[in-house]
C-alpha cells in the first residue's frame, strides 16, 4: 500500500470534513450491495425524471453540435433566461453582465466565497444548515458563525439572533429558504424583520440560496431578501439553480445574480477552475426556465402528499416530534424522547448520530443525523422517493422506536 509524507497534503483539508449526506448515501449503497434490504432517505434529489421538453432541448443541442466551449460563466441565451425568470418570479431586475452560471449551485456559492473571503472574515449561517456551507467558508479562509434556530422558533433565525451575531468582522449572511434540512420557509414579513437588521449594518452582504423556491406547500408564498427590501439589492447575491424544481440534479447548472464587480470576480475564479458549465446542460436550462412551468404544480402535489404521510407517521413514532415544513422535500424530526434508551441490539442512544447509525444497521433505513446540519438531537428525512418506500421506512422507524427500552 502506497503512502505519502504527513506534510504533503494541504493543511486546509484539516479544516473541513467530507459531506455527511454523501457518506450516508455511500454507506447505504454498500449495505445494499452486500444484500441488505436498505431504504435510502438521505439523498437530496427528486425522484422525478427531467421533463421531456428539457431533455429534448439537450438532445437538440447535441444534434446541432452545441458541444464546444462556451463563455466561461454561461451563454448569453441562458443569462437572458435567468434575467427573465428573476423579473417574472421575484420582481428583480438584472442584466446579463450581473449574472453568472456555474456547474451547480454549490460552485456558485463556492465561487462567491473564494472571491470575497479574507482571513478573519466571518459568515453568519443559521443552523440547522446545509452541510456544505460551513466547510466552504473554511476552505475559503473564513470563519463560519452558526446561529442556532431550534424547533421553538420553527427552525428560523430571529432578528434578535441575527443582530447579536453580527460583528465588525461579519462579511456575509448565508440565507436559505425553504431550508435544507428542515423545509422551514420565511414569510415576507419574517424576512422583513431580518432585512431591517441588515439595513443597520451596511458592511454585511447577503448570499441567498433559493434552490427550493418552487417547492412550497399550503399557503406559503416564497420571497427573497432583495425582493422584500430593495435597499439590499446592491449587496445581495441571489443564488438559485435548476437542480431541484426541474429535476435536473445531474445536469449541474446553478446561477446567481448580483453586483457586476462581484460577478466579475466570481467569473475570474471559475476561469481558473472549471471554466464553462456543460454546454448541453446550459441549453437544457434555457428550456427549463423559458418553457412550460405547469409540471411544477403536479410535482408539488406529489411532494405535498408525501410530506403529509411522513409527518403523520413520524409523529406516531414513540419519542419523535416532527414539525410540518413549508417547502423543499425534507422533514427534520426531533428525537429527544429517544435519548438514553437502548436498542434491541444493545446500542444506547446517546445522540442523533448513534440513533441514525443504529437505525441503518438494525432496520436498513438510511437517514442523516442532525449534528451534520448543526442542530441536535434530530435527523433529516428526504421524502423524494416513492410512497411505498416512505410507508415501509416510516413503519420500520416506528417499530425501531417502539422497541427502545
From TrEMBL:
CDD domains per UniProt: AAT_like
Class of enzymatic activity (EC top level): transferase
Family that this chain belongs to: Belongs to the class-I pyridoxal-phosphate-dependent aminotransferase family.
Gene3D superfamilies, alphabetized: Aspartate Aminotransferase, domain 1, Type I PLP-dependent aspartate aminotransferase-like (Major domain)
UniProt name for this protein: Aminotransferase
Cofactor names: pyridoxal 5'-phosphate
UniProtKB keywords: Aminotransferase, Pyridoxal phosphate, Transferase
Keyword Transferase belongs to the record: yes
SUPFAM superfamilies per the UniProt record, alphabetical: PLP-dependent transferases (SSF53383)
GO biological process: amino acid metabolic process
Reaction catalysed by this enzyme: L-aspartate + 2-oxoglutarate = oxaloacetate + L-glutamate
Keyword NADP: no
Domain Aminotransferase class I/classII large: 36-397
An example Gene Ontology molecular-function term: pyridoxal phosphate binding
Subunit text: Homodimer.
Assigned EC number: 2.6.1.-
